[in-house]
Design brief:
Distance between the termini: 43 Å
Number of strands: 15
Shape: globular
Low-confidence stretches: none
Largest sheet: 8 strands, mixed
Structural class: alpha+beta
Number of domains: 2
Length: 272
């Protein structure tokens, strides 16, 4: 099959897998505007030249992930080549065009849920909230699952024994909090969704370090960033995705916020 080009829009915070060690869920848009999910990817084990960022266009050979019933799910069959980075020139004009004009943008959350339950089984989407009401932060477990950690540790020991590899891999720290946006859609219906984007986890870790380990101050800083700074100054959109387990269970609402798209407000466009 020919290699495909994908604009990366989503990298979730790493999770642990007994089979694949540490993995991230990656998603993005093909050149025709259709969504694709590439999973699993052991991102931090990729070669440096393959470690893509959000809004990079990558090229790779991907194939349907037959163990995943969601139609957008694919797996990697080859190396990753980074083709180009879509920058922020002209008020994010190119990012806006590729993301907001090439693919559908939902404003009605009930319509998205209906499409998820329909034959199309939509499990990835761009969504425009009408109003963001706040952010809720909940404590979560602080440590990864012991069994998964032990499996990963044993596999790492075997690799060191049988491979000429001096690089020691350690898993990323577990994010001890869940961050949730509270918002309304175009019908005024209030929703609350968990944010699993890598960026919010990285921001928390950065702010915790800046405040010398003071988690309360770090959390306040994250909340300020995602509410005051982004909501007031940016044209917020969500990248939404389902988990396989929730999708298979036909959950009433299987979606999470797997990415936040925050271009500046395009006031010039609104004049016309």
């Amino acid at each position: 099959m020919p290699r495909e080009r994908v604009l990366i829009t989503v990298k979730t915070y790493p999770s642990l897998s007994s089979k694949y060690d540490e993995v991230v869920c990656t998603a993005g848009l093909r050149e025709d505007g259709s969504w694709v999910r590439i999973y699993p990817i052991p991102f931090r084990k990729l070669e440096d030249i393959e470690q893509y960022a959000k809004f990079d266009v990558i090229e790779a050979d991907i194939t349907r992930n037959t163990s995943d019933s969601r139609p957008e799910s694919y797996r990697l069959r080859s190396d990753i080549q980074i083709i180009k980075k879509i920058g922020v020139n002209n008020n994010w004009a190119e990012r806006r065009r590729l993301i907001l004009e090439r693919s559908q943008v939902y404003k009605d959350f009930n319509q998205l849920l209906a499409d998820n339950k329909s034959d199309s089984n939509t499990s990835l989407a761009t969504f425009k909230p009408t109003t963001i009401l706040g952010m809720e932060i909940e404590e979560d477990s602080r440590e990864w699952d012991d069994k998964k950690l032990e499996t990963i540790r044993l596999r790492a020991q075997q690799n060191q024994l049988f491979e000429d590899n001096d690089k020691v891999f350690s898993v990323v720290p577990k994010l001890p909090y869940k961050f949730k946006y509270i918002f309304t859609d175009i019908n005024g219906i209030e929703r609350k969704l968990t944010i699993t984007d890598w960026e919010i986890g990285a921001l928390f870790a950065k702010e915790k370090k800046r405040f010398s380990g003071d988690e309360s101050r770090a959390l306040e800083s994250v909340k300020n960033k995602y509410l005051s700074e982004l909501v007031q100054n940016r044209d917020i959109h969500f990248f939404l995705g389902t988990t396989l387990s929730w999708d298979n269970m036909n959950a009433p609402n299987p979606f999470m916020i797997i990415g936040v798209f925050s271009p500046p407000h395009d006031f010039q466009q609104s004049l016309f």
